[in-house]
Amino acid sequence: MAALRKLQLCAVSPTTKHSASVIFLHGSGDTGSGLRSWVRDVLVPDLVFSHIKVIYPTAPLRPYTPMRGALSNVWFDRNKISRDSPEHLESIDHMCDTLESLIQDQVRAGIPKHRIIIGGFSMGGAMALHLVCRRHPDVGGVFALSSFLNKDSVAFKAVEERHRAGLPLPPLLQCHGDDDELVLHRWGADTSELLKKSGMSSSFHSFSGLNHQLSRPELELLKDWILTRLPSDTSPS
After folding, report:
1. What is the chain's mean pLDDT, rounded?
2. Which residues, other chains included, contact 150 with Cβ-Cβ below 8 Å and sequence gap of 6+?
3. Secondary structure (H, E, C), 5-27
4. How is residue 62 annotated by DSSP?
5. Can you tell me the distance from the alpha carbon of 213 to that of 54, in angstroms, rounded to the nearest whole number?
């Protein structure tokens, strides 16, 4: 097994005491700093919180099959962008191992896991679903924007097994543009329905006229949802 790499991070610190964290994973070919800039351009007055640190990691360069093996900043490999394509579990699991170290860094900094939310855009949302559903179902929540899971994803089975055992699962927020031509809207909706059937609490929101991109209403919804899941810690210091 290849050695785990330490990820490059772009982070937005809270304006007061740090008591919760959000890990926001970018889409294929992007970077953490690129996603952070995109969010800042789209959302006014920005995805900044008084008590929540927002962390934007960058996926390491790796050969990416849909680009004929060219190097790209991607969380995992796949044969093609399709719900029918088998998952490349070796690369997915390796990145789960890498991202776990980032979660542990937050825990060591004093942030309990139920005060951590993990999510992403496009491929980053799929990566977040694998990481949370299969490895870290005890976090505070997971979100996926313009994302999908393969129709036979092992993540569905992991959720179903945990639900059958009577164990808690984190809430899921999904958002998707109904004009998305890269990751079809129905792929996202089907992912939400399959996760619901497996036992997960999933909220799916469609955005009219939105292609494969972020929008201000979507990020405003995400920001409100994060604050609901991670309210300010009002306990005495």
Report:
1. 95
2. 82, 83, 84, 85, 86, 87
3. CCCEEEEECCCCCCCEEEEEECC
4. E
5. 20
Total count of residues recorded for the chain: 237
Q: Quick one: DSSP state of residue 2?
A: P
List of E strands, 65-200: 70-73, 116-121, 141-145, 172-177
Rounded-to-integer distance, Cα 138 and Cα 151, Å:
24
Contact 29, 74 (CB under 8 A): yes
Confirm if 48 and 12 have CB atoms less than 8 A apart. Answer: yes
pLDDT at 3 over 70: no
Q: Are 78 and 66 contacting, i.e. CB atoms less than 8 angstroms apart?
A: yes
Under 8 Å between Cβ of 171 and 192:
no
Cα–Cα distances (Å) from 31 to 26, 50, 101, 163, 186, in that order, read 6, 25, 19, 34, 27
User: Known catalytic residues?
Assistant: 122, 180, 212
How far is residue 84's CA from residue 184's CA, in Å, rounded to a whole number?
Answer: 13
Q: By the 8 A CB rule, do 147 and 175 touch?
A: no
Question: What are 50-62's pLDDT values in tens digits?
Answer: 999 999 999 999 9
- CA angle, 101 as apex, 118 and 137 as ends, to 5°? 40
Asked if 111 and 105 touch (Cβ cutoff 8 Å), the reply is: no
Rg over CA atoms, the chain: 17
C-alpha–C-alpha distance, residues 205 and 81, integer Å: 22
Model-level pTM? Answer: 0.95
Strands 70-73 and 116-121 turn out to be unpaired
Distance from CA of residue 83 to its chain's centroid?
18
Q: First CA to last CA across the chain, in angstroms?
A: 43
